[in-house]
Design a protein that fits this description.
Helix content: 10-25%
CATH architecture of one domain: 2-Layer Sandwich
Mean pLDDT: 85
Radius of gyration: 33 Å
Low-confidence stretches: 1-28, 594-617, 626-645, 648-666, 757-790
Shape: globular
Structural class: alpha+beta
Largest sheet: 7 strands, mixed
CATH class of one domain: Alpha Beta
Strand order of the largest sheet: 4-7-2-1-13-17-15
Length: about 800
């Protein structure tokens, strides 16, 4: 034991001197406070949101219930509606006005938020695209408010500000009171394939039919919250929604030959389905595979006969934050049940799709819906709703119990693997949004990542359980590397408002998803992570969480201090680049004769030089200001550079004695063989990227076996730039690889390896007199330069 302490003491002492020297040479560079607590960066805990990340005893949120009647005019592409809204004030504040969202105003030339981005003259385009770039006159799109009254029919004063509308209340609405009002409105439906947006219509010229996706289609309440008051970010098309939970009853009047899919449950299938459809729907409730309620042949027939009659479909949806629907005569419709064991809920999983997607959607869509809600339920909370639907609509967007996805075949009905996998990824992602943010209801208008990032992470878990070889693009650490290595002026932190993000996909989707996967697999471990993530989902189901609530809950439920990770991955833009700078190798040697000298000698052999040519080495060779030896070799100050090229030797190098204040007792003779056959290594690392992360080291031994050591990120705590780790091995190491599975998003793997021949060095230990002090002697001017380097 005494001898072991002697060896480790020498190595650690040398390291501490190097650390001190590094701080002296680079004042202020050692500590960037990467391990300090987030402190005031996070909002102060209070009675609404606790320091544990849980809702507080005085947490509150508002409620909005809707009764809506609307009619789809397919001929004139017009939607007309009337709604009665019951708004409940659960806040402690008296309200003198309320705010509603009018998202359809996004398409209006004079009602939109009109937060213009820079524009350029297009090289090619259409007259319609030029109209959009240059339009000034009213194009006729956007919500038209026909009438706004209170429950007694008295007109209410209102003000439309771009995509929002303020309704002035006759008297202040106090805590616990309800306010009932009525709105009549209409709007011209947009062609979403040419104008863009999430809702509207798609026209199919081959058969002359429309497919309508009715989203953000009704005036709806903004969130009034404890953390910001009224949500006041205008809708520009990117930052999505901050919405209030409530119950919906919606009646949609559409052409009689249309099928309607919607948020909620249809309560009048017996009135709108024909006997065959109703029989098949009832059979689907107990099926083990998707049952076609409307078949391909029936859909093709419906496309040729356009009814002038009307039908009204009625849907109820309870405790949802939004409501969307789709309508078309083109639809094939299939369904099957999925049991969620945790809450004994049987969910009708359904898909609606045109003939253009039949060969893909009939095989996979509804099965993927069922797989998704089951898997997400395992990782978060049990799916609480009665329905989950996937609609093929050539785009991807999500709403409670219904989502719109792409996935069409080629004209001949064939499809590629990439199209199939892309379709599956979109379906899993959009169905997954039922959990984030439809249930765990974050503010998408402010924090896209809390919606898209968390959902992309569980999407990755779900894809892997669908197919272990699924080509996931969001989640695995190595897939984010190209983004992480971009110049700093092209990056912003994850903690950036939705509207201000330059590279939206990597920042809001991939990077947070990757971070959570690194937490799960590399930092916390699956057991701790999964428990804490489920706790976050449980705590904030049907509530409005903020980032601090996630950060605090993950720490509170796992017992892990993760502030360093949130600080680096979510608040910073630095990448991970951990370099294996050098490898020292030694063997212990115990001579029989004890020399008279009272100093300890450490002999080193020729090091193995890191051949990686980084930019500093190249520029040093090109720099004419650096002096040269007679043989044109740069007169570098580094000892190893000279030593490796035979410019100095161990015998002639200037020796520096370093005194270590560590007394040692005589090594018992019985222990002297204890380390004779051991192999001693010291690995030195540098943090070149700036982001502190765990260090994962894979040793390959000369007999071909491998071993992995996982070093927690806290090894950087006392020096964020340099660190080292000492090992005693039973076998000689052939090569070393850092991050062998590419799980830390290291942007430069060229500096992660060591291998090849390394002559052994020997630690010579001597018996000292009682009370004597251990002294160390090293070669060169740097006390760290004692053994073989990389």
């Amino acid at each position: 034991m005494n001898k072991l302490f002697t060896l480790i003491g020498l190595l650690l002492f040398s390291g501490s001197l190097a650390m001190a020297q590094n701080i002296q040479n680079n004042p202020g560079s050692n500590h960037g406070n990467k391990f300090e607590q987030l402190g005031t960066i996070l909002p102060t805990p209070n009675e609404q949101r606790t320091a544990s990340g849980a809702p507080g005893v005085k947490y509150w949120q508002q409620r909005a219930d809707y009764n809506i009647k609307c009619e789809l005019d397919e001929k004139n592409l017009l939607l007309t509606g009337s709604e009665t809204v019951t708004y409940t004030n659960n806040s402690p504040d008296p309200l003198t006005y309320i705010w509603l969202q009018l998202d359809e105003n996004e398409h209006s030339t004079d009602k939109s938020a009109n937060y213009q981005d820079a524009t350029k003259m297009p090289m090619t385009g259409t007259t319609q695209s030029l109209d959009q770039l240059s339009a000034k006159a009213n194009n006729g799109y956007g919500i038209n408010v026909i009438k706004l009254t209170d429950a007694t029919g008295k007109n209410l004063k209102y003000t439309v500000n771009k995509t929002m509308m303020r309704v002035d209340l006759p008297v202040a609405l106090r805590t616990g009171q309800k306010f009932i009002f009525n709105i009549d409105w209409n709007y011209k439906i947009t062609d979403r394939m040419s104008i863009g947006g999430r809702g509207g219509y798609e026209f199919f010229p081959a058969d002359g039919n429309y497919l309508f996706t009715m989203t953000q289609w009704y005036p709806r309440l903004c969130v009034y919250s404890d953390f910001q008051g009224w949500q006041n970010h205008q809708f520009t098309g990117r930052g999505e929604f901050a919405l209030t939970f409530g119950d919906f009853k919606v009646q949609m009047t559409v052409p009689a030959d249309h099928l309607v899919g919607s948020t909620g449950e249809c309560i009048n299938y017996s009135a709108v389905l024909n006997p065959s459809q109703l029989s098949r729907y009832n059979a689907a409730k107990v099926a083990t595979a998707p049952v076609e309620i409307q078949t391909l042949a029936e859909a093709k027939t419906a496309e040729t006969k356009k009814s002038t009659a009307k039908k009204t479909w009625v849907f109820n949806a309870n405790n949802v934050r939004d409501f969307a629907w789709t309508s078309s005569r083109k639809f094939i419709w299939d369904a099957m049940p999925q049991k969620i064991q945790a809450n004994n809920n049987t969910v009708m999983c359904m898909s609606f799709y045109g003939k253009e997607a039949y060969n893909l959607y009939s095989k996979y869509s509804t099965r993927a819906v069922a797989h998704t809600i089951k898997t997400y339920s395992d990782f978060t909370i049990p799916y609480p709703y009665p329905v989950a639907q996937s609609i093929e609509a050539a785009n991807g967007m999500e709403y409670p119990m219904i989502c719109f996805n792409y996935g069409r075949t080629d004209v001949d009905g064939t499809y590629s693997e990439s199209t199939k996998n892309g379709m599956l990824g979109v379906i899993i992602h959009e169905v997954g949004h039922n959990f984030f943010p439809m249930i765990v209801n974050s503010d998408e208008r402010q924090w896209t990542w809390m919606d898209e990032g968390l959902n992309s992470f569980v999407e990755y878990l779900t894809e892997e359980l669908w197919d272990n070889k699924f080509p996931s693009k969001k989640g695995p650490a190595y897939t984010i590397v190209d983004y992480m290595k971009l110049p700093k002026d092209e990056l912003e932190p994850i903690m950036t408002n939705s509207e201000n993000i330059a590279r939206f996909g990597p920042n809001a989707y991939s990077k947070p998803a990757t971070g959570l996967n690194i937490l799960r697999e590399t930092i916390m471990g699956r057991e701790l992570f999964d428990y804490a993530f489920k706790e976050y989902s449980r705590r904030w189901a049907f509530k409005h969480p903020e980032p601090a609530d996630l950060f605090r809950t993950m720490e509170d439920a796992s017992g892990e201090d993760l502030d360093w990770f949130w600080r680096g991955w979510f608040y910073g833009t630095e990448p991970c680049d951990i370099a294996l700078d050098s490898v020292k190798f030694a063997k212990a040697d115990f001579p029989k004769e004890v020399p008279a000298a009272r100093s300890r000698m450490i002999k080193v052999d020729k090091p193995a030089v890191n051949a990686f040519e980084d930019i500093s080495k190249i520029r040093n060779r090109e720099d004419k200001k650096i002096s040269f030896y007679a043989d044109k070799t740069p007169a570098a100050q580094d000892f190893y550079y000279k030593y490796d090229r035979g410019l100095v030797t161990v015998d002639t190098a200037t020796a520096t004695k370093v005194e270590m204040a560590m007394p040692i007792e005589v090594v018992p003779a019985a222990d002297q063989g204890k380390y004779d056959n051991k192999f001693l290594y010291e690995l030195s690392f540098s943090n070149r990227g700036g982001l502190v992360m765990p260090i994962i080291v894979e040793f390959t031994y000369k007999d071909g076996t491998k071993e992995i050591d996982r070093i927690p990120a806290q090894i950087w705590r006392h020096n964020e730039l340099k660190t080292s780790k000492f090992y005693v091995k039973d076998k000689e190491v052939e090569s070393i690889l850092v991050d062998p599975l590419r799980e830390t998003a290291d942007i430069d793997t060229a500096n992660n390896t060591w291998g090849g021949k390394a002559k052994e060095s020997k630690f010579k230990t001597f018996k000292l007199k009682a009370g004597g002090a251990v002294r160390g002697q090293s070669v060169g001017t740097n006390p760290m330069q004692k053994a073989a380097s990389k």
